[in-house]
Design brief:
This protein is of the alpha/beta class. The chain folds into three domains: about 5-40; about 55-185 and about 440-520, nicotinate phosphoribosyltransferase (Alpha-Beta Barrel), CATH 3.20.140; about 185-425, TIM Barrel, CATH 3.20.20. It is built from 19 helices and 19 strands. It has a seven-stranded antiparallel sheet with strand order 15-14-1-5-3-18-19. A six-stranded parallel sheet has the order 6-13-12-9-8-7. A hairpin with a 2-residue loop joins strand 16 (about 465-470) and strand 17 (about 475-480). Helix 8 crosses helix 10, helix 10 crosses helix 11 and helix 14 (about 320-330) packs parallel to helix 16. The chain is globular, with a radius of gyration of 27 Å. About 40% of the residues are buried.
Length: about 525
């Protein structure tokens, strides 16, 4: 801690001791100091909204028909890998947009665009008016489905409309921000959701677990290993949090920070859990001269048992010979594992995963014992489990493993999964063909329906009208409120922004509500 900060804290403590009002408002001086220091921090969702777009969009304010006052844009998944998606990211987008713009933002954007285009393209006065006359708030309304809603593709998941007639161009300006803020967490959350659905079905077939026990075990069965495989810290934050709406297992620390930041939660609130785990480096560190003998590898395993044996802990078993290591640990350390009372999780990491899992299941059941549940499937002794974290890039890969485990006569509760790049990185906007398009504009006081219908790419045909999402006979449908005005205020959307002001109080309660809502979502087909 530097000297200036140390002196400031001393002054703050003195102020706290001398002010009864402060003492009544804060439980102790540390809470008061923490609150004051927080005032100097930059909001993690602050962006320069003037520049949060494609360059060419700076020229759009002058491209609309004369007399245009309002526009309506919508975001849609036009198809792709899954027929049903879990929509995520709307809270994050709203948090960014509600920050608004400052005079400094506008001045910087103006200077940049003058150099970028070589002439005055940026509508400086209009942006400056937002910063000075609108309290910096963006004059737009944002509607969308509730965060974590499972929605059939080809429906409008969100709508953005301007609220001031001079800013008809704003919804289009924010197309990149909305698309980027929605497609990525939606793609990750959808993978995570489909894995959860597949695992739930496998548990229903092979496990006796019910109620809270089932939910806890299920939510620990897909662990986020994706931190090192993503392109950036921001990707880890956003994608990792999307996964945590379905599961609680993660090693992506940035996702935990994102949850705290997005929902203004305490620094000691963890949205996910993890366990101590041994990797190859901490195993081969017991070797020498480029070799790792069985005794040296066993010394590494015993270290984990000694250090973490009273809880759940994992060891990677293939630094030398996977089968030999599994067998040695099962025989040499069985008594110690049982005495410690925890759970030793065996992790295959290379080779044929189906052969490795078969060997581990059969060896552990023979050495540690098992029970047979009411559905006829073997459940390993509770002191041992397996995690497969290699070679899992698609939902189908995990389904293939659960099918294999089931075919071998074992309950799926015996195994957990780790997914890295396949969860957080191997997705893009076209995974679900996400697009944001204008569907209506108001010209000279009259709403017009508009859409594109590209010949030869009919799948890109967009929707027309002022769109809202409704549920009719239990099915989601996107409707045009110019045709069906009764749905303008009675629909499946919630409002995220009203004239640029956020409509949610972001806190722990909201986070837990959304996570609980995620658990109510299931595939319709």
């Amino acid at each position: 801690m530097n000297m200036k900060k140390t002196q400031m804290i001393k002054h703050l403590r003195a102020l706290f001791r001398g002010d009864a009002t402060l003492q009544a408002e804060y439980k102790n001086s540390d809470n008061f100091i923490r609150a004051v220091l927080q005032l100097g921090k930059t909001d993690p969702f602050k962006r320069n909204l003037c520049t949060s777009s494609d360059s060419y969009k700076a020229s759009h304010p002058k491209q609309f028909p004369r007399g245009t006052t309002h526009t309506s844009y919508y975001v849609e998944a036009r198809g792709g890998k899954f027929d049903e998606i879990m929509v995520q990211g709307l809270h994050g987008v709203a948090r960014i947009l509600e920050q608004g713009v400052t005079v400094e933002d506008v001045e910087r954007a103006n200077n940049l665009f003058k150099s970028h285009f070589g002439r005055d393209i940026f509508v400086y006065k209009q942006w400056l008016r937002i910063a000075t006359e609108f309290d910096g708030k963006i004059p737009v309304n944002m509607f969308g489905v509730k965060e974590c809603t499972v929605l059939p593709v080809k429906n409008a998941m969100a709508v953005l409309e301007n609220t001031h007639e001079d800013y008809y161009w704003l919804p289009g300006h924010f197309e990149p921000l909305l698309m980027r803020g929605i497609w990525y967490p939606t793609a990750v959350g959808t993978i995570s959701f489909h894995v959860k659905e597949a695992l739930r079905r496998a548990f229903e077939r092979t496990s006796d677990l019910t109620g809270a026990d089932l939910e806890f075990v299920l939510k620990t069965r897909l662990h986020d290993f994706g931190l090192r495989g993503v392109s950036s810290e921001e990707s880890a934050r956003i994608g990792g949090l999307a996964h945590l709406m379905n599961f609680i297992g993660t090693d992506t620390v940035e996702a935990l920070i994102m949850a705290q930041d997005l929902y203004n939660m305490a620094e000691d609130f963890a949205a996910g859990i993890s366990i101590p785990a041994r990797e190859h480096s901490t195993t081969i560190s017991y070797g020498d001269d480029g070799e790792l003998t069985p005794d040296q590898e066993d010394e590494a395993f015993e270290n984990s048992i000694d250090q973490y044996g009273d809880g759940v802990y994992a060891c990677v078993m293939d630094s030398k010979d996977f089968e030999a290591a599994v067998l040695r640990v099962s025989r040499k350390f069985k008594a110690k594992i049982l005495d410690m009372g925890g759970v030793f999780v065996f992790r295959p990491d290379s080779g044929d995963m189906f052969a490795n899992i078969k060997y581990a299941l059969e060896t552990l059941s023979e050495e540690f014992g098992y029970t047979v549940n009411s559905k006829g499937f073997k459940v390993l002794h509770p002191s041992v489990r397996i995690i497969q974290g290699d070679g899992l890039n698609k939902v189908h890969d995990i389904v293939a493993v659960t099918d294999c485990v089931e075919d071998l006569g074992y309950s799926v509760e015996n195994i957990a999964f780790g997914m890295g790049g396949g969860l957080l990185q191997q997705v893009n906007r076209d995974t679900h063909k996400v697009a944001m398009k204008m569907s209506a504009l108001k010209v000279n006081g009259v709403w017009r329906k508009v859409r594109k219908t590209p010949k030869g790419a009919e799948w890109k045909t967009s929707k027309a009208g002022r769109l809202r999402l409704v549920k009719i006979d239990g099915e989601y449908r996107t409707v045009d409120i110019l045709e069906f005005p009764e749905y303008e205020h009675v629909n499946e959307y919630v409002q995220y922004l009203r004239s640029g002001y956020g409509m949610f109080e972001y806190n722990e309660e909201l986070f837990l509500q959304i996570r609980a809502y995620s658990d109510t979502q299931h595939l319709t087909a």
